[in-house]
Amino acid sequence: MFGTMRDELRTQLDELRRDGLYKEERILASPQDATIQVRTRDGGTAEVVNFCANNYLGLANHPALQEAAARAVSEWGNGFASVRFICGTSDLHRTLERRVSEFLGTEDTILFAAAFDANGGVFEPLLGEEDAIVSDALNHASIIDGVRLCKAARYRYAHADIDDLRVQLRAARDAGARRILIATDGVFSMDGDIAPLPGIVAAAEEFEALVMVDDCHATGYLGATGRGTMEHFGLEGRIDIVTTTFGKALGGASGGCVSGRAEIVELLRQRSRPYLFSNTLAPAIAGATIRALDLVEEEPERLRRPVAHAATFSSRLREVGFDVLPTETAIVPVMIYDEPKALALADRLLERGIYVIGFAYPVVPRGRARIRVQMSAAHSSDQVHAAAEAFIAEGRAMGIIPEAE
Ligand SMILES: *Cc1c(COP(=O)(O)O)cnc(C)c1O
After folding, report:
1. Residues of the chain with confidence (pLDDT) below 50
2. Of 154, 286, 381, 397, which one's alpha carbon is 20 to 30 angstroms from that of 251?
3. Is 217 a catalytic residue?
4. Partners of 372 in beta bridges
5. Is residue 256 in contact with ligand 1, taking CB distance under 6 Å?
6. Which of 189, 259, 278, 314 is catalytic?
7. Residues 73, 26, 382, 308: is their CA dihedral positive or negative?
8. Which domain holds residue 139?
9. How many helices (H) and strands (E) would you count in the chain?
10. Distance from Cα 116 to the centre of ligand 1, integer Å
Protein backbone atom coordinates (compact mmCIF):
# COMPACT_ATOMS: atom_id res chain seq x y z
CA MET A 1 0.00 0.00 0.00
CA PHE A 2 2.75 2.43 0.92
CA GLY A 3 4.32 1.90 -2.56
CA THR A 4 2.55 4.70 -4.44
CA MET A 5 2.47 6.94 -1.42
CA ARG A 6 6.24 6.59 -1.05
CA ASP A 7 6.68 7.95 -4.59
CA GLU A 8 4.27 10.81 -3.91
CA LEU A 9 6.03 11.76 -0.69
CA ARG A 10 9.43 11.64 -2.42
CA THR A 11 8.13 13.96 -5.11
CA GLN A 12 6.77 16.30 -2.46
CA LEU A 13 10.09 16.28 -0.58
CA ASP A 14 11.97 16.97 -3.83
CA GLU A 15 9.68 19.93 -4.45
CA LEU A 16 10.47 21.33 -1.00
CA ARG A 17 14.20 21.01 -1.76
CA ARG A 18 13.77 22.59 -5.19
CA ASP A 19 11.82 25.53 -3.73
CA GLY A 20 14.41 26.10 -1.00
CA LEU A 21 11.82 25.24 1.69
CA TYR A 22 13.50 22.07 2.96
CA LYS A 23 14.73 22.51 6.52
CA GLU A 24 18.12 21.00 7.26
CA GLU A 25 18.60 20.55 11.01
CA ARG A 26 21.99 21.55 12.25
CA ILE A 27 23.45 19.09 14.76
CA LEU A 28 24.83 20.51 17.98
CA ALA A 29 27.67 18.66 19.67
CA SER A 30 27.40 20.53 22.96
CA PRO A 31 24.72 21.83 25.35
CA GLN A 32 22.87 25.03 24.44
CA ASP A 33 24.84 28.09 25.54
CA ALA A 34 26.34 31.40 24.38
CA THR A 35 29.06 29.38 22.66
CA ILE A 36 28.21 26.00 21.15
CA GLN A 37 29.89 23.26 19.15
CA VAL A 38 28.17 22.47 15.85
CA ARG A 39 28.79 19.41 13.66
CA THR A 40 30.53 20.20 10.41
CA ARG A 41 29.99 18.31 7.11
CA ASP A 42 33.23 16.36 7.56
CA GLY A 43 31.94 15.04 10.89
CA GLY A 44 34.14 17.31 13.00
CA THR A 45 32.93 20.19 15.15
CA ALA A 46 33.23 23.97 14.98
CA GLU A 47 32.83 26.41 17.83
CA VAL A 48 30.42 29.27 17.17
CA VAL A 49 28.79 32.02 19.19
CA ASN A 50 25.09 31.28 19.17
CA PHE A 51 22.70 34.12 18.32
CA CYS A 52 19.70 32.03 17.30
CA ALA A 53 18.45 30.36 20.47
CA ASN A 54 15.53 31.51 22.65
CA ASN A 55 17.91 31.20 25.58
CA TYR A 56 17.25 34.81 26.62
CA LEU A 57 18.40 34.47 30.22
CA GLY A 58 21.22 32.04 29.50
CA LEU A 59 19.64 29.44 31.80
CA ALA A 60 19.45 26.53 29.33
CA ASN A 61 22.70 25.06 30.67
CA HIS A 62 22.93 26.87 34.00
CA PRO A 63 24.43 24.79 36.84
CA ALA A 64 21.73 25.90 39.30
CA LEU A 65 19.02 24.54 36.98
CA GLN A 66 20.91 21.31 36.36
CA GLU A 67 21.13 20.88 40.08
CA ALA A 68 17.45 21.68 40.67
CA ALA A 69 16.46 19.24 37.91
CA ALA A 70 18.65 16.50 39.40
CA ARG A 71 17.25 17.14 42.86
CA ALA A 72 13.68 16.95 41.55
CA VAL A 73 14.46 13.64 39.84
CA SER A 74 15.97 12.12 42.96
CA GLU A 75 13.04 13.31 45.06
CA TRP A 76 10.18 12.65 42.62
CA GLY A 77 11.58 10.15 40.13
CA ASN A 78 11.70 10.31 36.37
CA GLY A 79 8.00 10.85 35.87
CA PHE A 80 4.45 10.20 37.10
CA ALA A 81 3.20 8.04 34.25
CA SER A 82 -0.20 9.64 34.54
CA VAL A 83 -2.30 12.56 33.50
CA ARG A 84 -2.87 15.14 36.20
CA PHE A 85 -6.43 14.17 37.20
CA ILE A 86 -5.72 10.46 37.72
CA CYS A 87 -2.46 10.29 39.68
CA GLY A 88 -0.11 12.80 38.05
CA THR A 89 -0.40 15.77 40.41
CA SER A 90 2.36 16.13 43.01
CA ASP A 91 3.32 18.81 45.51
CA LEU A 92 5.98 19.81 43.00
CA HIS A 93 3.38 20.54 40.29
CA ARG A 94 1.22 22.52 42.69
CA THR A 95 4.28 24.45 43.85
CA LEU A 96 5.22 25.36 40.28
CA GLU A 97 1.65 26.49 39.53
CA ARG A 98 1.58 28.65 42.65
CA ARG A 99 5.05 30.00 41.87
CA VAL A 100 4.07 30.99 38.30
CA SER A 101 0.88 32.71 39.55
CA GLU A 102 2.87 34.60 42.15
CA PHE A 103 5.47 35.59 39.55
CA LEU A 104 2.96 36.75 36.94
CA GLY A 105 0.62 38.31 39.51
CA THR A 106 -2.27 36.15 38.31
CA GLU A 107 -4.96 34.29 40.24
CA ASP A 108 -4.09 30.76 39.12
CA THR A 109 -2.02 28.73 36.67
CA ILE A 110 -2.41 25.40 34.87
CA LEU A 111 0.57 23.51 33.44
CA PHE A 112 0.76 21.99 29.95
CA ALA A 113 3.38 19.83 28.24
CA ALA A 114 4.21 22.80 26.00
CA ALA A 115 2.96 26.30 25.29
CA PHE A 116 1.81 24.85 21.97
CA ASP A 117 -0.59 22.67 23.96
CA ALA A 118 -1.57 25.57 26.22
CA ASN A 119 -2.65 27.53 23.14
CA GLY A 120 -4.21 24.42 21.64
CA GLY A 121 -6.32 23.88 24.74
CA VAL A 122 -7.21 27.34 25.96
CA PHE A 123 -9.90 28.48 23.52
CA GLU A 124 -12.22 25.52 22.98
CA PRO A 125 -13.41 25.10 26.59
CA LEU A 126 -14.09 28.84 27.02
CA LEU A 127 -15.73 29.82 23.75
CA GLY A 128 -18.51 28.26 21.70
CA GLU A 129 -20.28 29.12 18.47
CA GLU A 130 -22.06 32.08 20.02
CA ASP A 131 -18.67 33.67 20.81
CA ALA A 132 -15.89 35.36 18.82
CA ILE A 133 -12.09 35.42 18.76
CA VAL A 134 -10.33 38.47 17.36
CA SER A 135 -6.76 37.57 16.51
CA ASP A 136 -3.66 39.49 15.38
CA ALA A 137 -2.74 38.55 11.80
CA LEU A 138 0.81 37.59 12.81
CA ASN A 139 -0.05 35.41 15.80
CA HIS A 140 1.95 32.24 16.46
CA ALA A 141 0.97 29.01 14.70
CA SER A 142 -0.18 27.48 18.00
CA ILE A 143 -2.75 30.26 18.52
CA ILE A 144 -3.99 29.78 14.97
CA ASP A 145 -4.37 26.04 15.58
CA GLY A 146 -6.04 26.58 18.96
CA VAL A 147 -8.54 28.95 17.38
CA ARG A 148 -9.28 26.38 14.67
CA LEU A 149 -10.15 23.80 17.32
CA CYS A 150 -12.78 26.09 18.77
CA LYS A 151 -16.25 26.84 17.38
CA ALA A 152 -16.15 30.60 17.99
CA ALA A 153 -16.48 32.98 15.02
CA ARG A 154 -13.04 34.16 13.83
CA TYR A 155 -11.98 37.71 13.13
CA ARG A 156 -8.47 38.79 12.20
CA TYR A 157 -7.02 42.28 12.58
CA ALA A 158 -4.02 43.71 10.73
CA HIS A 159 -0.85 43.22 12.77
CA ALA A 160 -0.71 45.53 15.82
CA ASP A 161 -3.32 47.81 14.21
CA ILE A 162 -5.66 49.13 16.92
CA ASP A 163 -7.96 50.84 14.40
CA ASP A 164 -8.49 47.57 12.59
CA LEU A 165 -8.87 45.75 15.92
CA ARG A 166 -11.74 48.11 16.75
CA VAL A 167 -13.32 47.50 13.34
CA GLN A 168 -13.22 43.75 13.98
CA LEU A 169 -14.52 44.11 17.55
CA ARG A 170 -17.37 46.20 16.23
CA ALA A 171 -18.13 43.53 13.61
CA ALA A 172 -18.12 40.81 16.29
CA ARG A 173 -20.44 42.84 18.53
CA ASP A 174 -22.76 43.67 15.61
CA ALA A 175 -22.93 39.95 14.80
CA GLY A 176 -24.27 39.44 18.33
CA ALA A 177 -21.29 37.65 19.88
CA ARG A 178 -21.79 36.67 23.53
CA ARG A 179 -18.12 36.56 24.62
CA ILE A 180 -15.32 38.16 22.63
CA LEU A 181 -11.67 37.28 23.22
CA ILE A 182 -8.78 39.25 21.73
CA ALA A 183 -5.72 37.02 21.22
CA THR A 184 -2.22 38.33 20.61
CA ASP A 185 1.42 37.37 20.93
CA GLY A 186 3.11 39.60 23.54
CA VAL A 187 6.36 39.77 21.55
CA PHE A 188 6.31 38.82 17.86
CA SER A 189 9.31 36.66 17.15
CA MET A 190 10.02 37.63 13.54
CA ASP A 191 9.91 41.41 13.97
CA GLY A 192 10.86 41.50 17.66
CA ASP A 193 8.09 44.04 18.27
CA ILE A 194 5.81 44.23 21.30
CA ALA A 195 2.02 44.04 20.97
CA PRO A 196 0.40 47.46 21.60
CA LEU A 197 -1.25 46.26 24.81
CA PRO A 198 -2.42 49.64 26.13
CA GLY A 199 -4.53 50.15 22.98
CA ILE A 200 -5.67 46.53 23.03
CA VAL A 201 -6.76 46.72 26.67
CA ALA A 202 -8.58 50.03 26.06
CA ALA A 203 -10.41 48.56 23.05
CA ALA A 204 -11.23 45.44 25.07
CA GLU A 205 -12.79 47.56 27.78
CA GLU A 206 -14.80 49.58 25.30
CA PHE A 207 -16.17 46.47 23.56
CA GLU A 208 -16.33 44.33 26.72
CA ALA A 209 -13.88 41.78 25.40
CA LEU A 210 -11.35 39.57 27.19
CA VAL A 211 -7.62 39.76 26.43
CA MET A 212 -5.32 36.77 25.98
CA VAL A 213 -1.56 37.37 25.60
CA ASP A 214 0.93 34.69 24.55
CA ASP A 215 4.09 35.89 26.24
CA CYS A 216 6.47 33.10 25.21
CA HIS A 217 9.12 35.52 23.89
CA ALA A 218 8.81 37.92 26.85
CA THR A 219 8.30 35.99 30.10
CA GLY A 220 11.40 36.12 32.29
CA TYR A 221 13.19 39.12 30.81
CA LEU A 222 10.81 41.82 29.58
CA GLY A 223 9.52 44.42 32.05
CA ALA A 224 11.38 45.74 35.08
CA THR A 225 11.25 42.40 36.91
CA GLY A 226 10.77 40.00 33.99
CA ARG A 227 6.98 39.63 34.24
CA GLY A 228 6.69 40.19 30.51
CA THR A 229 4.74 42.52 28.24
CA MET A 230 2.04 43.35 30.79
CA GLU A 231 4.69 44.60 33.18
CA HIS A 232 6.46 46.43 30.35
CA PHE A 233 3.27 48.48 29.93
CA GLY A 234 2.23 48.55 33.61
CA LEU A 235 -0.89 46.49 32.84
CA GLU A 236 -0.58 43.86 35.57
CA GLY A 237 -3.96 42.47 36.51
CA ARG A 238 -5.61 43.79 33.33
CA ILE A 239 -4.87 40.77 31.14
CA ASP A 240 -7.37 37.93 31.56
CA ILE A 241 -5.27 35.09 30.15
CA VAL A 242 -1.51 34.75 29.76
CA THR A 243 -0.01 31.73 28.07
CA THR A 244 3.72 31.15 28.21
CA THR A 245 6.52 28.62 27.88
CA PHE A 246 9.23 27.17 30.10
CA GLY A 247 11.20 26.35 26.95
CA LYS A 248 12.63 29.80 26.27
CA ALA A 249 13.94 32.27 28.89
CA LEU A 250 12.87 30.12 31.86
CA GLY A 251 15.38 27.34 31.35
CA GLY A 252 14.95 26.22 27.75
CA ALA A 253 13.65 22.72 28.49
CA SER A 254 9.95 22.45 27.68
CA GLY A 255 6.53 22.87 29.20
CA GLY A 256 4.11 25.76 29.30
CA CYS A 257 1.08 27.09 31.07
CA VAL A 258 -2.07 29.15 31.02
CA SER A 259 -2.23 31.70 33.82
CA GLY A 260 -4.99 34.13 34.67
CA ARG A 261 -8.47 34.40 36.16
CA ALA A 262 -9.17 31.62 38.68
CA GLU A 263 -12.44 30.41 37.12
CA ILE A 264 -10.87 30.27 33.67
CA VAL A 265 -8.02 28.09 34.96
CA GLU A 266 -10.46 25.96 36.97
CA LEU A 267 -12.59 25.29 33.88
CA LEU A 268 -9.49 24.43 31.83
CA ARG A 269 -8.58 21.77 34.44
CA GLN A 270 -12.01 20.23 33.82
CA ARG A 271 -12.21 20.61 30.07
CA SER A 272 -8.94 21.39 28.28
CA ARG A 273 -8.13 18.37 26.11
CA PRO A 274 -4.31 18.68 25.93
CA TYR A 275 -4.33 18.88 29.75
CA LEU A 276 -6.75 16.01 30.31
CA PHE A 277 -5.27 13.58 27.80
CA SER A 278 -1.52 14.19 28.04
CA ASN A 279 1.07 13.23 30.64
CA THR A 280 1.95 15.50 33.54
CA LEU A 281 5.10 17.65 33.31
CA ALA A 282 8.34 15.78 34.14
CA PRO A 283 9.67 16.47 37.66
CA ALA A 284 13.05 17.56 36.26
CA ILE A 285 11.35 20.36 34.31
CA ALA A 286 9.04 21.40 37.15
CA GLY A 287 11.97 21.56 39.61
CA ALA A 288 14.23 23.45 37.23
CA THR A 289 11.50 25.93 36.27
CA ILE A 290 10.87 26.81 39.93
CA ARG A 291 14.62 27.47 40.26
CA ALA A 292 14.59 29.57 37.06
CA LEU A 293 11.87 31.80 38.53
CA ASP A 294 13.93 32.16 41.72
CA LEU A 295 16.98 33.17 39.67
CA VAL A 296 15.01 35.84 37.80
CA GLU A 297 14.21 37.40 41.19
CA GLU A 298 17.62 36.83 42.79
CA GLU A 299 19.67 38.16 39.86
CA PRO A 300 17.76 41.11 38.39
CA GLU A 301 20.86 42.23 36.45
CA ARG A 302 20.57 39.03 34.38
CA LEU A 303 17.28 40.03 32.81
CA ARG A 304 18.47 43.44 31.72
CA ARG A 305 21.32 42.01 29.65
CA PRO A 306 19.52 40.68 26.56
CA VAL A 307 17.69 43.95 25.88
CA ALA A 308 20.85 45.98 26.60
CA HIS A 309 22.84 43.79 24.18
CA ALA A 310 20.13 44.22 21.54
CA ALA A 311 20.26 48.00 21.90
CA THR A 312 24.07 48.16 21.61
CA PHE A 313 24.12 45.81 18.64
CA SER A 314 21.29 47.63 16.80
CA SER A 315 22.82 51.07 17.18
CA ARG A 316 26.23 49.87 15.95
CA LEU A 317 24.67 48.28 12.87
CA ARG A 318 22.49 51.30 12.11
CA GLU A 319 25.48 53.60 12.39
CA VAL A 320 27.14 51.87 9.40
CA GLY A 321 24.01 51.74 7.25
CA PHE A 322 22.23 48.48 8.09
CA ASP A 323 18.45 48.64 8.20
CA VAL A 324 17.53 47.27 11.63
CA LEU A 325 13.90 47.13 12.75
CA PRO A 326 13.28 49.11 15.94
CA THR A 327 13.41 46.75 18.90
CA GLU A 328 12.84 46.93 22.65
CA THR A 329 13.22 43.19 23.07
CA ALA A 330 16.09 40.67 22.84
CA ILE A 331 15.30 40.13 19.15
CA VAL A 332 17.11 42.19 16.51
CA PRO A 333 15.84 41.79 12.92
CA VAL A 334 18.53 42.94 10.48
CA MET A 335 16.67 43.60 7.23
CA ILE A 336 18.40 42.38 4.07
CA TYR A 337 15.21 42.22 1.93
CA ASP A 338 16.82 40.11 -0.84
CA GLU A 339 16.24 36.39 -0.09
CA PRO A 340 19.45 34.79 -1.44
CA LYS A 341 21.54 37.60 0.05
CA ALA A 342 20.10 37.08 3.53
CA LEU A 343 20.82 33.36 3.40
CA ALA A 344 24.33 33.94 1.99
CA LEU A 345 25.15 36.48 4.68
CA ALA A 346 24.11 34.01 7.40
CA ASP A 347 26.42 31.37 5.80
CA ARG A 348 29.35 33.79 5.70
CA LEU A 349 28.79 34.80 9.33
CA LEU A 350 28.80 31.15 10.36
CA GLU A 351 32.20 30.78 8.67
CA ARG A 352 33.32 33.56 10.99
CA GLY A 353 31.95 31.75 14.03
CA ILE A 354 28.72 33.76 14.34
CA TYR A 355 25.63 31.55 14.23
CA VAL A 356 22.55 33.45 13.04
CA ILE A 357 19.63 32.42 10.85
CA GLY A 358 18.42 34.07 7.67
CA PHE A 359 14.62 34.08 7.36
CA ALA A 360 13.03 34.27 3.95
CA TYR A 361 9.62 33.70 2.37
CA PRO A 362 7.35 31.96 3.43
CA VAL A 363 8.41 32.49 7.07
CA VAL A 364 8.39 36.26 6.46
CA PRO A 365 6.67 38.12 3.57
CA ARG A 366 8.31 38.03 0.13
CA GLY A 367 11.02 40.68 -0.27
CA ARG A 368 11.29 41.08 3.54
CA ALA A 369 14.15 38.61 4.11
CA ARG A 370 16.17 39.25 7.22
CA ILE A 371 18.65 37.89 9.70
CA ARG A 372 17.22 37.50 13.17
CA VAL A 373 19.73 37.98 15.95
CA GLN A 374 18.66 36.82 19.41
CA MET A 375 20.52 38.12 22.42
CA SER A 376 21.10 36.20 25.62
CA ALA A 377 22.21 37.16 29.11
CA ALA A 378 24.89 34.51 28.57
CA HIS A 379 26.56 36.61 25.84
CA SER A 380 29.46 38.79 26.91
CA SER A 381 29.70 42.37 25.65
CA ASP A 382 32.80 41.28 23.70
CA GLN A 383 30.82 38.58 21.91
CA VAL A 384 28.09 41.07 20.98
CA HIS A 385 30.70 43.56 19.77
CA ALA A 386 32.50 40.89 17.72
CA ALA A 387 29.20 39.83 16.14
CA ALA A 388 28.47 43.43 15.10
CA GLU A 389 31.94 43.79 13.56
CA ALA A 390 31.47 40.50 11.66
CA PHE A 391 28.14 41.77 10.26
CA ILE A 392 29.86 44.98 9.20
CA ALA A 393 32.80 43.25 7.48
CA GLU A 394 30.55 40.82 5.58
CA GLY A 395 27.90 43.46 4.89
CA ARG A 396 30.57 45.57 3.20
CA ALA A 397 32.08 42.64 1.32
CA MET A 398 28.61 41.78 -0.04
CA GLY A 399 27.69 45.37 -0.89
CA ILE A 400 24.76 45.39 1.58
CA ILE A 401 26.12 48.48 3.34
CA PRO A 402 28.51 51.12 1.95
CA GLU A 403 32.28 50.80 2.25
CA ALA A 404 33.92 52.61 5.16
CA GLU A 405 34.75 56.28 4.40
C1 LIG B 1 7.69 29.23 21.19
C2 LIG B 1 6.30 29.69 21.15
C3 LIG B 1 5.24 28.84 21.42
C4 LIG B 1 5.44 27.36 21.67
O5 LIG B 1 6.08 27.14 22.88
P6 LIG B 1 6.48 25.64 23.29
O7 LIG B 1 6.48 25.63 24.78
O8 LIG B 1 7.82 25.40 22.70
O9 LIG B 1 5.45 24.74 22.72
C10 LIG B 1 3.96 29.36 21.45
N11 LIG B 1 3.73 30.67 21.20
C12 LIG B 1 4.73 31.52 20.90
C13 LIG B 1 4.44 32.95 20.63
C14 LIG B 1 6.05 31.05 20.85
O15 LIG B 1 7.02 31.90 20.54
Report:
1. none
2. 381
3. yes
4. 333, 357
5. yes
6. 189
7. negative
8. 63-298
9. 14, 14
10. 6
Q: What is the number of domains present in the chain?
A: 2
Q: Which residues is 134 bridged to in the sheet?
A: 155, 182
The answer to whether residues 316 and 294 belong to one domain is: no
Is residue 245 lining ligand 1, measured as CB closer than 6 Å? Answer: yes
The SS3 call for residue 201 is helix
Q: Which helix (H) or strand (E) holds 349?
A: helix 339-351
Q: Are residues 205 and 216 in the same domain?
A: yes
In a domain, 7, yes or no: no
Query: DSSP assignment, residue 151?
Result: -
Rounded distance, CA 355 to CA 349, Å?
7
What are the percentages of helix, strand and coil residues in the chain, rounded to 5? 45, 15, 40
Residue 248 falls in the annotated catalytic set: yes
Instruction: Decide whether any atom of ligand 1 lies within 6 Å of the 216 Cβ.
Output: yes
Which of 93, 217, 309, 379 is labelled catalytic?
217
| Cα–Cα dist 50/38, whole Å | 10
Residue 59 Rama label (left phi>0; alpha psi -120 to 50; beta): alpha
Residue 176 has a pLDDT of 98
Cis amide bond preceding 362, omega within 30: yes
Residue count of the chain: 405
Report helix angle 300-319 to 381-397, nearest 10.
20
Amino acid identity of residue 106, one-letter, is T
Residue ID of nearest Cα to ligand 1 atom 1: 216
Is residue 178 within 8 Å of 142, Cβ to Cβ?
no
Partners of 404 in beta bridges: none
Q: What is the CATH number of the domain that holds 166?
A: 3.40.640.10
Q: Which of 116, 147, 193, 215 to mutate to test the pocket of ligand 1 (most atoms within 8 A of CB)?
A: 116
**Residue 164: inside a domain:** yes
Cα–Cα dist 400/258, whole Å: 43
